[in-house]
Amino acid sequence: MSFFIPSAQAQAAGQAAGPAGGELFQILFLVGLFVLFYFIAIRPQRKRQKEHAEMVSALNKGDEVVTSSGILGKVTALDDNYMVLSVADKVEMKFQRVHLHAVLPKGTLKQIGA
């Protein structure tokens, strides 16, 4: 059985050398993969987050908005973290400002009959 050991050591020594430039290719592949991931996923998400933060900070009393749950209303009061929407006659609802989905053009609520 001892005649198998030298061939196993010789085989392991051949594998340790590996192909020339393999480490450089792996590093460049990982860097390229990260750059691709950055431009496909990270950068667009940060841009959307920045636009949403600007929209939430520019919110004013009297704006007509849509929440992330699809509720339409007119902003009647604002706080640092909350907004109060008038959704019908004598019906007001309080939402977190981060749940703002879109600011509608003036007169949209009257136009759709809400």
Automatic annotation (TrEMBL):
An example Gene Ontology CC term for this record: plasma membrane
Topology within the bilayer: Single-pass membrane protein
Alphabetic keyword roster: Cell membrane, Membrane, Protein transport, Translocation, Transmembrane, Transmembrane helix, Transport
DNA repair listed as a keyword: no
Pfam families in alphabetical order: YajC
Bilayer-spanning residue ranges: 24-42
Compartments, record wording: Cell membrane
GO biological-process terms attached to the record: protein transport
InterPro entries: Preprotein_translocase_YajC (IPR003849)
Similarity-based family: Belongs to the YajC family.
Name of this chain's protein: Sec translocon accessory complex subunit YajC
Species name: Parahalioglobus pacificus
